Each structure stands twice: as structure tokens, then as C-alpha cells.
């Protein structure tokens, strides 16, 4: 009489499962431009009321061009944030972070106190749905908080978020671009 060998069901060890899961997650993250080290974008309900516009061009990390509902094109400078300039370290990264948040999207533009800056740009808080873009840029470490009076509605929040991003070494902070030794600009 011949004995049949019984096949044992192979059980994947937990470590192998975790490795496969990590690889799948990494492929997903790379495919969709997700940075697993960045904090999740924050919303906070719905965007406040403001003007609606379509983003037509990303200028840099804190400036965009938009087509307003009336068909005019406006340049918009984000209120309360500052990102690296074209000749500075981390410029491309901050511009790309902004691009990922707003490129081609419909945005809501919310005014603080000032309407325009010295360069005739609209000064606005920018929302994509309930995503507060100014806040997300600071949280992810691609912008620093900046106070230009009288526009200070979110300054204290932005300053706290900048300190957290610096402590977490997120975005541009490892480059030292925002390390001027002061929280005031």
C-alpha cells in the first residue's frame, strides 16, 4: 500500500505579508505622487464663501494665475505664506507641491483684509473644495508663515503649523531655507 503525501497548506509568515503590503503601498504612492512622509491635507469642513476661479498656471509655490468667473485672468498671491524664490534651494519642490494641490482645479479665493499687493496681485486664501491650500503648504513644510499687516486672520495658526513642520523636518525644512532665526519676517 502506498501512502499519499498530504500537502500542507503554505502559510505566509506575517513578515512576508508586510513586505508585500509595503511594496504595493510604495507603488501606489509613486504612481499617484503621494508623499507618505507629508501630513495629510487638512480640510476642516467646507470652504468659506469667496470668488470661484479656475487655475490656469502655477507661477511658484505661493502664486498662481486663475481665470475668474467673468473671464478675466488674475494673478493670485497666497496670503500668510512665503515659499522659496526661483534662485533659492527648494524652489522646484515648493512649486511642485503647489502644482499637485491646485493645478487645473477650481478654487475658492477668500479675502482677508487687503485686496491687492504692490504688484497688483490678488491677495487670497485659496481652497480646493475643503482643502485649505495655504495651510497645506505650511503643514507639508513647503512654505513658511509670514505676516504682512493687516492680513493676519490665520497667522497664529500658520506659525504653529510652521513650527510643527520644522520639528518634523518636513518639506523644505531640512534644506535650512526657512532658518532665519526668527518667526517674524
List the helices and strands and how they pair.
Layout: H1 14-31, E1 51-60, E2 63-68, E3 73-78, E4 81-82, H2 91-102, E5 106-110, E6 122-128, E7 131-132, H3 133-139, E8 144-145, H4 155-167
Parallel strand pairs: 3-6
Antiparallel strand pairs: 1-2, 1-5, 2-3, 4-8, 5-6, 6-7
CATH topology of the domain at 51-175: OB fold (Dihydrolipoamide Acetyltransferase, E2P)
* Share of residues in helices: 25-40%
Radius of gyration from CA coordinates: 22 Å
**Series of secondary-structure elements, N-terminal to C-terminal:** HEEEEHEEEHEH
What shape does the CA trace take?
Answer: globular
Class of secondary structure makeup: alpha+beta
Low-confidence stretches: 20-42
| CATH architecture grouping of the domain at 51-175 | Beta Barrel
Largest sheet: 5 strands, mixed, barrel
End-to-end separation: 89 Å
Amino acid at each position: 500500500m502506498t501512502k499519499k503525501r498530504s500537502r500542507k497548506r503554505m502559510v505566509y509568515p506575517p513578515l512576508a505579508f508586510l513586505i508585500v503590503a509595503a511594496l504595493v503601498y510604495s507603488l501606489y504612492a509613486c504612481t499617484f505622487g503621494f508623499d507618505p512622509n507629508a501630513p495629510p491635507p487638512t480640510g476642516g469642513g467646507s470652504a468659506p464663501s469667496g470668488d470661484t476661479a479656475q487655475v490656469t498656471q502655477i507661477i511658484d509655490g505661493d502664486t498662481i494665475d486663475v481665470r475668474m468667473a467673468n473671464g478675466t485672468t488674475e494673478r493670485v498671491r497666497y496670503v500668510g505664506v512665503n515659499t522659496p524664490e526661483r534662485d533659492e534651494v527648494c524652489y522646484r519642490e515648493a512649486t511642485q507641491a503647489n502644482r499637485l494641490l491646485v493645478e487645473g482645479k477650481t478654487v475658492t479665493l477668500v479675502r482677508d483684509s487687503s485686496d491687492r499687493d504692490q504688484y497688483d496681485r490678488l491677495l487670497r486664501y485659496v481652497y480646493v473644495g475643503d482643502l485649505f491650500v495655504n495651510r497645506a503648504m505650511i503643514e507639508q513644510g513647503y512654505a513658511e508663515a509670514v505676516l504682512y499687516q493687516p492680513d493676519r486672520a490665520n497667522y497664529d495658526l500658520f506659525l504653529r503649523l510652521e513650527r510643527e513642520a520644522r520639528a518634523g523636518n518636513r518639506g523644505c525644512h531640512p534644506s535650512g531655507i526657512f532658518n532665519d532665526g526668527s518667526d517674524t519676517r
